[in-house]
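Entry 14. Structure prediction run on the chain below.
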Amino acid sequence: MKIKRSAIATSLGVGLGLTLALMALMNMTPASAAPAALAYHVNAGSGNDVFGDGSVGNPWKTISHAANKVSAGTSTSQQIIAVAAGTYDGALGETFPIVFENEYVRLVGSGAATTIIDGGGATDVISVTAEGITIQDFTIQNATGDGIESSMGGLTVRDNVFRSVGTGFRLFTDPNLPGLGTYTTTGVLVVGNTFSVTSSGINIDTHSDAGDTASTIGFGGLDVLSNTFYMTDTTASGVEIENYSAEHLDGGQANFGAVTISANVFVSGSYGINMNCDDHSDYLTDTLYTVGDLTITDNDFWGQSSRAAYVDCHTADHWYGTTSVTYGDLLISGNDIASGESSVSGIRVYEYPWWEYLYDDVSATVGQVSIADNTIDVTSYGVHFYYGY
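Output returned:
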């Protein structure tokens, strides 16, 4: 068994004066109308689902109908559904959740301030079951569960407002790999959104159980950039990653792309970022397994009651044969953290990574851990790095 770990470089700046100036730098792309050509159109005021054909002069009335009618696009040419300003709710004829099951479709509103999808208390507002979907320029509101829930990657969530929902965006993948053999999906981009949530702004659970087969697993990674998270419940989190792993591979391979969380603003709640992953990469035999870098940079955290950023990932056991595992770097830098709540830690990294029961000719490599150039003003630990045996 061969284990390598690079040096840990940790530095900390302590100071006062949390600034929300990053808000001015956020990538809040101005709302843009979808192109008139090569697009299908929806209009709450003038549309008709029975007699409309989706053209600009004869639009459909509901997004639900358009999502059902528009065929799949391609990775280089998405189908476009352009939605006019208005409120799209059950009274109009929307059925919830609105389901996108055809690949490479881009749903574009006329701006979040004027284009509202109102779930009216439904469990979920939008459900995505296909690769390559984009949801852009909407206010998505009034759901007891999720604003957008997806079982597929390749998703872009851009410039939306989520309010009066439990979780803004949830990604849950749990493929039946013994039946599929191969499961690969491209990455997820969440950029320029505003979340007002009671549970979590973003929740990620990408767990794969290969059932002791030589499966191939691939997930393209996650970018969370320039969003604002308002946690309206004291137990809520901004970004929550519950699983980012695969297990029970025998002769297979798995690749999980980089995770980047950068230039966001986190206000109140329990955690800004909670990566309590339950990340068990267990029972790997003769498996090639790689995980990309984890980067948490240039975020503002204000008023969390537990921790601003918590990282507890990459726990594993029972590796056999020639299994080779590589974890990327962990970089936490340039963040501003402030909270006057009692017993709050700024940054906690817990047992990163933690392994046991490694056998045969197993090899493992862990990248550099760097916690540097953060400004932290909290009531407990500024940086708490814990490793137990």
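The longest strand covers residues 194-213.
Filed with the rest of this week's runs.
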